[in-house]
Amino acid sequence: MSTALNQPHQTTAAASLRGIAKSYKHFRLNNIDLEIEPGTVNGLIGPNGAGKSTIMRIMMGLVTPDQGTVSVLGQPISSREASAKQDIGFFSDDMRLYKSESLAFHMQFVRSLYPNWDEDYAQQLLARFGLIAQQKIKGLSHGQRVKALLLLILARRPRLLILDEPTNGLDPVAKQEVLSELMQIVTDETRTILYSSHNTQDVEQICDTITFIDRGRMIASSNRDEFLDGWRRFKLQAPQSWQAPAIEGLRPESTFGNLRVMTLDRYQAEVEGRLQSSGATLESSEAMTLEEIFVAAVLRGREEKQQ
Amino acid sequence: MNTQAIQILFLKDLFLSRWPLFGYLVGGLLSVVVACLPGDSAGFIGFILMITMTIAAGIHLIAVLLLAESVDMTRTFVMSLPVSLLDYSIAKISVVLVAFLIPWLGMLASLTVLNFVVPGAKPGVLAFLAPMFIFMLAGFCLQLVTAIVTESVGWTIVVVVLGNVLLNLFLKSLWEHPVISALHKSEVLLWPPVVLQIMAVEAIVILVALGLAFLFQIRRRDLI
Question: Which one in A230, A245, A299, B202 has a CA-CA gap of 20 to 30 Å to B67?
């Protein structure tokens, strides 16, 4: 264990992870550095098993890292600390409520631990989500269980929301209801959200900063618009002997005969001209969706790791 | 340490286990009543029922209050609240122990009272029953530490089975012990040194098991 683990660092960030590593039998989280600014909505995108949940569990003190330091809302966090959790709302896809008890029981239980519990807001959420407080948890559908958990989290008015795949398995209507509620929270600029998903559309809808993670490593992290503006896909007709110009961040994606598909992660306006002057015919220069960027970034990351 | 959080967690778990707790308390008290009815058969049936109730209560309460949190994934929810591992551990071990002690004490106390008030009952038999009950409490504490360390239903059942085998051997040797067997029909309750020594050893096992349970729980690095 790193000695740094016992030395919390001072930071103004809503959450800060430095040099975090955690090993399991078949998985290793490698050297994660993540800084989350207050009042921002941050997306953590990665395939299943990438390490998103592990990062979030470490931030909640549910899992102890082997190395590195974690501070959340200015306080060091570990399983031995509870005070920071007073201002954090954590949702996890595998989190369950007591199935034999009602939502009202859970509301009362959570209320007793949070002096900031907002009963009016809880009642509003009950109505908005179409939940019945007296209904037992075992009688709720998956979507209703997710909404019940979100109600229990949101009514505490947490300063930091850590949401691990909250829309997983939801039908389109329930998903939109959940995202709409989160977007309302986003309008409050004092609150910070970390939102993980493997669904890029959800993240694109609400997040302003995005981090890609794959196989326990951070692949890329940037502002959403910088991702969308910085990535491009080019389709070129070029002879077999063609050599791509030395443009930083330009990588071949696929080749079909003379058709070359290339992606670029640091787009600038003069790139098209350089490609044309290299002896290739530029057929198209397309902006990429966040999903396409994610896939390209993950594949690049894997290639770089193998080299 | 947050005593308010511990209290809330404790009461929550006690509430969650209210129905099995009520069932084992009523069942235990009924078995004591049966044990004190006239006739050897009633006494034997009541005795078997008491042991069965105590063992079943132990397994059931550990399953409901401890193992279920891991299997049903409710621990993630609890530990996402402003609760430290220390708060959680104190509340959890206390409530599992108290929940078991409710039917256990109910049976032992009613048995003691009935042996003194029912005409024809022999209070001397309490010198046999008290170490038996404390043995079952010690067995429960060993199951508790196993459940905490392994979080496994399988290993906990292994300890339950081993505990039952040992209980039978213990009861046989206790029943046949010349000093203790002489007290079964005694009108007077006596505590010979051998009984006190047995209970002292049982108390040490209980304290060590509870200490280990707490130690293992608070040293846990990953909670889910």
Answer: B202
What separation in angstroms does the CA of A7 have from each of A3, A20, A67, A68, A175? 7, 13, 11, 9, 40
CA–CA separation, B62 and B163 (whole Å): 15
Task: Give per-residue pLDDT as tens, B122-158.
Answer: 888 899 999 999 999 999 999 999 999 998 889 999 9
A84 and A180 belong to one structural domain: yes
Domain range for residue A55? 3-224
Q: Is the ipTM of this complex over 0.90?
A: no
Rg of chain B over all Cα atoms, to the nearest angstrom: 19
Residues of B in contact with A110 (CB under 8 A): 81
A200 and A280, same structural domain? no
- The answer to whether residue A49 sits within a structural domain is yes
Size of interface A-B (CB pairs under 8 A): 74
Q: Which residue of A has its CA nearest to B10?
A: A109
Closest CA to A163 of A113, A199, A128, A188: A199
Within-domain flag for A265: yes
3-state SS assignment for residue B222? strand
pLDDT of amino acid A109: 97
Specify if A300 maps to a domain: no
Give residue-wise pLDDT tens across range A10-41: 557 899 999 999 999 889 999 999 999 998 99
